[in-house]
Amino acid sequence: MGERVRVGAGETPAVCDPGPSLFAGVAAFPWRWLTPYRRSVRSLRRLLAVAALGAALATGCGGRAGRGGGGEPPDDAEQVRIDANAALLRTTAGAEDGRVFDRLDLRGADLRDTPLAGASLAYARLDGADLTGAELTGTVLRGARLVGAELRGSNLSGAVLVGADLSRADLTDADLSGADLSGASLRGAETGGARFPGAVLSWAYLDAVDLRRSDLSGACWSASQPPIWPDGYTPPPPGLSC
Length: 242
Description:
Layout: H1 22-28, H2 38-59, H3 76-92
Helix pairs in contact: 1-3, 2-3
């Protein structure tokens, strides 16, 4: 257990070590051994995740500063909540599809390689979050803010990104096949090597994006609501799946 240092108002603790993390223990447990008792295991994991959330809030340890994807960086109290939210997400990752984390504040959170397939993160705040290599197949990110988020190599196939803000996000080598990007903003995003076959791009904001190394073959859009293309870009013929 690390030594806690008493500090005055406005000062930062020299040491903030709450000891072995309950989050890590819950996440590391080999839950697959208990597959025959799946229903009871899900209830137990939810209970432990709530306990972990309470433990994180009780420690008062703030963790990382925000990555600065959009807006002001979170203050200490906000950072505690963000770290607890991220730990809750990692703890329950892969438990089941249909998990709901709508409107969760995850600014600057480290969610690398986190399996979130089928989860709902509608209107979540993910500005500056690191989702490198994350499994986001079919994830609902409707209206979510992902300004400046790291999504390099992430699997977003079939994801619902309607109205999402992906401005300045890094989508290098990301798989967006079949994703619904209607009304989404990708202004200033890095899309080199990103794949969009079968993606819906109606009214998507793609201006200020270099699409020359992106694969948009088979992407589709409404004839009455075409995407906002970069100046001078010649789009491929739209696909027929819209």
